[in-house]
Amino acid sequence: MRSWFLALVGGAGLVLLSGGAQAQTLEGSIWEGEDHTGVSRLELRGDSTFRVRTPDLSTPFTGQYEVEGKYVRMFVELPTDAAEPVIREIVLLYRDGTLVIPEPRLDEKVIEFRRME
């Protein structure tokens, strides 16, 4: 089974939720969350890049992110042989001190990322 991240970049596309965040509280932060594959780590770097490590990835995925109010929008360029890059957008919701993203199937639990201090 694939992790939440691979399932989303593998075709689920945009996931949009509702909830409040400020850019300065999220930039330069590290978050951990757990799904059926194990613990994932998400780093939101101060230079607007991110890195995701999940148990089923041999190397971390990286990309750009931006904070818009209560949402973190992550842009991932997928490896492809096509002339035009394939970019997936993932939207996380900042809610009650956590970043939340659901797995693509509605019967799965919601994954919450807690900030690591």
Coarse structural class: mainly beta
Task: Tell me the number of strands.
Answer: 8
Strand order of the largest sheet: 1-2-3-4-5-6-7-8
Q: What letter string, H or E per element, gives the SSE order?
A: HHEEEEEEEE
Helix content range of the residues, please? Answer: 10-25%
Main sheet summary = 8 strands, antiparallel, barrel
- What is the 3D shape? globular
The residue-averaged pLDDT reads 75
Question: Can you tell me the residue ranges where pLDDT is under 50 for at least 5 consecutive residues?
Answer: 11-24
Please compute the radius of gyration using only Cα atoms: 13 Å
List keywords for this structure.
117 residues; Lipocalin; eight-stranded antiparallel beta barrel; 2 helices; globular; mainly beta
